[in-house]
Amino acid sequence: GPAPNLHGLWVIGEDWYLEVAESTSGFGASRGIIVQNGKSLLDRLGYDEAFGFIRIEGKPFYFFSQGGKVNASFGGEEIPLVYDEVLHYQCCSGARNNPIKSEDMISYFARRGETWYYAEAGIFR
Question: What is d(CA 115, CA 48) in angstroms, rounded to the nearest whole number?
């Protein structure tokens, strides 16, 4: 597909993180995998998918799906967002830019039921 498979490599303290998109089926269908120190977070934490990795004030932040819901993790603590969908790894137009990562923040569009939300996560001073 047109979207890249490698989404980044980060080092935080003694840990390293790698985010990749695994092609699942069809054109553009991908599943996010985050690897920490050589071990998949999917296997270690029982996630169905992990994506959107970013460093916020030196701590790891990422989204994960488990049991049909999308939540987040920040600094090792799970945050219950309870979205049905957070668009990612999409092709073409504005969909390719979700989520948008910047220094110490991430912005994204997410769906819960029939309602779409715009949200931001980060440290705001």
Answer: 23
Q: C-alpha 26: how far from its chain's center? A: 21
Give the pLDDT confidence score for residue 95 in this predicted structure.
Answer: 62
Q: CB under 8 Å, gap of 24 or more: what pairs does 23-30 form?
A: 27/1, 27/91, 28/1, 28/2, 28/3, 28/89, 28/90, 28/91, 29/1, 30/1, 30/3, 30/5, 30/89
pLDDT at residue 89, rounded to an integer: 80
Give the total residue count for the chain: 125
Chunked into runs of 10 residues, the chain (125 residues) has average pLDDT values of 78 96 71 95 97 95 96 96 90 72 91 96 87
Ramachandran region, residue 108 (left: φ > 0; alpha: ψ -120 to 50; beta: rest) = beta
Tokens linked to 106 = 């991430």
Q: What is the pTM assigned to this prediction?
A: 0.90
Helix (H) or strand (E) segment spanning residue 42? helix 41-45
